[in-house]
Every structure is written in C-alpha cells, then in structure tokens.
C-alpha cells in the first residue's frame, strides 16, 4: 500500500452499453483505492468512437466470434463474481445516461458515481431500457435528484456540448473502445486487463 | 488436483505468427497438467481463418488500436514473465512451420512439441524469419531431425492436405483467431483468458 496523496488520478473511459465496461466499473474504484488512487469516470458514446476509428463492436453480427463474445460477457461476469443478466435489448444508445452523468457530476461527484453504477445495474442486471429518458430520470429520481430539473438539463446545450467534448477528448487521447483505462499515460483496454492494471499500480510499471 | 485419466484433452489452436499464441503456448501445458489434462496442439493459418470469417488481425494498420496492441504484446509478456522481443518482420507466413509440425507429430509427439516451442522462441525471442524453409529446417535440425527428410516432407501432398484439413476443422469448430482453446466444448479466446481457463479447470465449469 502506498501513501500517494500526490499520485495522478486514473482515467476510466466507458460506454453505458458496454458489458465489459460494466464489469470493470464494478471493480476499478476499489483497485485504485488500494493503491491510493482516485478514478475519473468518463462516459462516452462508442458509436462516435467506432465511426471515427473504423473499429467495430466486439459482438457484431452472428459470426462465431459474436456468439463467443455474448457467451464471454456472461462467463467473464461469473469469473469476476459480478451479477449479470444478458439484456434483451442490446446494444442501446446511451446519450441520455451520459448527459445525465455529466450534469450530476457538476452538482455532486459522489452522486454522479452512484448514478453511474445504478445505470449499469439497471441495464445489465434489471434489463431496463436505459436509452429511454424516462428510465434515466427514474434512476436519478431514486437517488433523490429532482426529475424536472434533470429533464431540462438533458436538453441543455451545455450538457450536450460536454458529452461531445468528452468523446473528442477520448479520440484525441487514443481511446478506441470500452472500457479503456489510462494510468500515468499507460493505456489498458478491456475488463480482462484488470490483473495488469493491478500489477501496474502495485509495481509502478513493469 | 484431480485424478483425471479419463478427462478429454484440451484443444489449443494457434498460428506461429501470433504473439498471444506464443504467450499462451508457454503456459498451457503446465496449467492443463496441474488438472490432469493433456493438450492437443493445432497450428493453423490465421490468413485462412480471417478470410473465411471476415475477422481482422488485432494489430491492423497504424490506428490507435494497432499502436496499443503492439505495446500490449510486450507488456502482456512481461506481465506473464515470458521473454519477448518484438520481431522486426511481423506478421510472417507460417505454412512451412505448421507443415513441419504436423509431419514431426506423425513421427514423435514429444519432438513436435519441442519443435513448436523452438519455432515460437525463434520468432519472438531471437527475431528469426520463421517463414523461411531454411530457418524451419535449422530449428528442426538442432532437435536431431534429418534435414533432407523434413525438406521433402514439407513438399508432400499429404502434409499440405493435413494443414488444410486442420484449418477447415478449426473453422467448422468455431475457431476465429489465435490463440483459441476449447475445453469440453467451452471456447476461450486470447492469452488473457488464461485465468478463466484455470478457473474452469479447477471448478469443472463456473
């Protein structure tokens, strides 16, 4: 365990529709905290990232790879001890959830973190349609957020611009998928890189 | 540790030009042996697999993803404690190495395994051009294999057909990349699935 008041925060880029993003979201704060680090969460839109980079989602089409990936989502969750129910609608657009996150973050960082976890669990445990503004408002409402205020915020040009900026910053930084973690300039892609992230934090690079 | 004389062997599909295949090759036999399993090695040609499935190699082009993947090859090797020197020519065609493997396997299974390790290390440690028949014959020669006999075998229709059959069997089984491991019908893709493979063998499925 290091005393690390001065250590830079870890950046965690993800899309709310990314199963591997959900899995890493359930672990990253605890792993970072064990090494005296904070995590900055950045929801982004994978559609924007894929369009700009020419990348494809892991579970694209009905190929052998796609069949494998759907199975691996579930198996990886069991391996990591995380509840997971394959959503009946997948993937989903996530701009409402991401915008709500950034607005909440401007009000209360800890609340935004609770909201992010709640959105992921709503999608990957409770099979809710997180693309719907109503669902997003319901999730925030349960955390004590005023529904009308948030509904208005989701339509504000500032919040729309903030999400657009985050996606552009992700691309400029070399983010090409979800989850994508950056520690002191070192990039780690995928929930399966968690052991390497822990190794890196423990050893200060290897 | 299980007493498992009856347990089915594990199938390990790989291309000799695959860095993650090399990393898993250095570990898979020991992990399997700890759970009373043998491993059947199947070198195949990723070019054939990619053409048939429409998949792409992980380090394709000069994108942010490709740059990441080159870095991750090396970092994953360090993480796993395996020597790795990025080859100066990459990727390389591997039909000569794969054909030599299958011919040797017909003579002596243990020798074929030694040869496979030697080919991978020649490429990923000593930076040799394993696409060249001469290099392949040199590697086998050091293991006591008669050079002329193997040179003739590499041109035999039987050995060419064997490699073609293995690639077709891979596709029919749902193999879409390298390394690809199948345990009792369960598929594991990538060297980073080694912890899940161990978990699976230990628990008999999870």
From TrEMBL, chains A, B:
Highest taxon listed in the record's lineage: Bacteria
Recorded catalytic activity of this chain's protein: 2-hydroxychromene-2-carboxylate = (3E)-4-(2-hydroxyphenyl)-2-oxobut-3-enoate
Group of enzyme by EC: isomerase
Keyword Endoplasmic reticulum appears in the UniProt entry: no
Protein EC: 5.99.1.4
GO molecular function: 2-hydroxychromene-2-carboxylate isomerase activity; glutathione peroxidase activity; glutathione transferase activity
Domain (DSBA-like thioredoxin): residue spans on this chain: 10-200
InterPro entries associated with the record: DSBA-like_thioredoxin_dom (IPR001853), GST_Kappa/NadH (IPR051924), HCCAis_GSTk (IPR014440), NahD-like (IPR044087), Thioredoxin-like_sf (IPR036249)
Entry keyword set: Isomerase
Keyword Isomerase recorded: yes
Biological process annotations from GO: glutathione metabolic process; naphthalene catabolic process
Entry annotation: catalytic residues: 18 (nucleophile)
PANTHER family assigned to the protein according to its UniProt record, in alphabetical order: GLUTATHIONE S-TRANSFERASE KAPPA, GLUTATHIONE S-TRANSFERASE KAPPA 1
Family: Belongs to the GST superfamily. NadH family.
Protein name from the UniProt record: 2-hydroxychromene-2-carboxylate isomerase
